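Please go through the protein record below and see whether the fold suits the sequence. Record follows.
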Amino acid sequence: MSSNQSWIDRDLAVLWHPCTQMKEHETLPPIPVSRGEGSWLYDFDGRRYLDVISSWWVNLFGHANPVINARLKAQLDQLEHVILAGFSHQPVVELSERLVQLTPPGLERVFFADNGASGVEVALKMSFHYWRNLGRGEKTRFIALENSYHGETMGALGVGNIPIFTETYAPLIQPAFIAPSPDCQQAASGESCADVTERALAGMRALLERVASSTCAIIIEPLVQCAAGMRMHEPAYLEGLRALCDEFEVHLIADEIAVGFGRTGTLFACEQGGITPDILCLSKGITGGYLPLSAVLTTEDIYQAFYCEAPVSRAFLHSHSYTGNPLACSAALATLDIFEQDNVIERNRERGAMIDRLTAPLAELPNIAHLRRCGMIVAMDLVDDRPGNQGNPFPRAERRNQKAYRYALDHEVLLRPLGNTIYWMPPYIMDDDQWQMLADVTLDAVRFAVQD
């Protein structure tokens, strides 16, 4: 078997990695993975890593999961792919039926794409085209929240608000109107999360009063703005936002690409606000981390705006070659089977007390601020505790988080910090010993990272 170094050499000779300054790999080479098993990844030299970021938030039930493996093997002998325009197949119909049953009431139609950003593009185009078909062509813009992230295709970048992703490509994108975020970390002295929620809703109302007539939809990440550093807000914001969308006649798009399928403690985050969005975007965990797939669910009202005998220009004009791929749909069906058979949501809720106990020592560190949890997502910010700088990010927060990252790797844990935020978003199958290991290594990694 080849060693790690031989694979690293081959990798760096030909491969361009995503979201990576490739020169950094001169000192921090990529980790070649030979196989996965459960919550572990293994390299070619036999070292293992606890995958507590679920391989970019997609792996829900572990690597090489036997239930998903069996479903995919059976599907391989039946049908690997077929065009979905004018054709259909059993896995895509069954998956559509089950998603309609599981998602908030009123979402009755399912459109498939093959990744999260493409799902967002579908949602944006669907909303715009709906208003156009209704003769409301003046509605061409979107509203997004501060610190929002919805993907890196051009349309998705337009509704993003994280400068590192948007500034370079600004001349190529149509920016959204930006509304205040309900992020609880923005609470001023003496304010509660409820106060932040009310302030953000008031800001949204003021914006809608100015721009609703030209706005197609508001797009949000319910409960957790993940790429912004796991910024969390209260479910009450969703209820208030739903009311504003109804009042001002704009669609509500819920981007649950990262937070769907149990991450926030309910199957879908919108459930906690008691709302149904007009359009719901799902991806990442939908296939258990096996294959690319996204699903965009919408209402019968939006569907009917495209359903007529008029020219094809009134039809929804969006397609992907691998739309509704049978293998991906089969992996998604197996994933839903695991949720149902293993009572996953209830089991995860029961783990909440254990997670809070494990994170308590982290909260006591002077260099940790805003320790927070939403369901199965835990996050904390690495801050400076030196006199005059208390609570502020370190001047070189990313460098210190890189130290934490390397320390954790050396101790068999895969952490991948976001800016000055360290987070856990692990697969749901981790046992108590693995949770304890994660907490212990994170504690030691933070202590190591802040040493001068």
